[in-house]
Amino acid sequence: MKYIKELLMLVVSLLVLNVWLLRLNNATIYRGGDALNMIQEFAVYGLSETMFYIIGALKVLSATGLLVGFFYKKSIVPSASLIAVLMCGAIVMHFRVNDEAIKFLPAGLMLISSLVIVYLDRKTITD
Fold first, then answer.
1. Domain that holds residue 86
2. pLDDT, tens only, 79-107
3. How many domains does the chain have?
4. Nearest 5 degrees, angle CA 58-CA 106-CA 57?
5. Nearest residue to 33 (alpha-carbon basis) of 87, 86, 103, 109
6. Is residue 7 within 8 Å of residue 113, measured between CB atoms?
């Protein structure tokens, strides 16, 4: 189970960092509404540019925290929990604008993966 948790930590952190640092201005099939980049996507959801920067900082911070978790175990649960909360918010935003199901997929997978990380980390503490 340790390796599953570590694999999920790596995948979740690298995917979140990829989206927020490398693919920020790229159009994808997962963008909300008809947005072509992340700032436009936030506008589709009715969120300000300030919220864009706050959410972006939280996502990059939490993804970095997961990577730090390989060396400092106490950062795993807070980082994965924050990602889970943020992904819940992303799912709600997709619902609010009536996006098709495919657009929910990344946030849903990141939510499930983050919850599994928290569960497996807590399980190793009690074992």
1. 2-126
2. 999 999 999 999 999 999 999 999 999 99
3. 1
4. 10
5. 103
6. no
